Amino acid sequence: MTCRHQQLPPPWVYTVDQAAHVLAISRRQTERLLASGALASVTIGSRRLVPINAVELFFRELILAQLAKLPPEPASTGTN
Prior knowledge:
By secondary structure, the chain is of the alpha+beta class. The chain has a single domain (about 10-65), classed as Arc Repressor Mutant, subunit A. Helices cover about 45% and strands about 15% of the residues. The protein has a three-stranded antiparallel beta sheet. The longest helix is centred in the last third of the chain and has 18 residues, at about 50-70. The radius of gyration is 18 Å and the shape is elongated. About 10% of the residues are buried.
């Protein structure tokens, strides 16, 4: 018999600690992202969990925001 706190989360979510590890940030920073709504979460029972697709979406938005800051590529002249 396992204790409730030792049960593994479903395979489609991370614990807050796992999400922090994947994001390569601290748990406190992860909790701030959750509190601000920048990172989605779900509650199952009394546990706050982060869907894997929410982490993927966060990365995608972060990358797109960085790409938007880059200067435009020069126009191609058609010759190498």
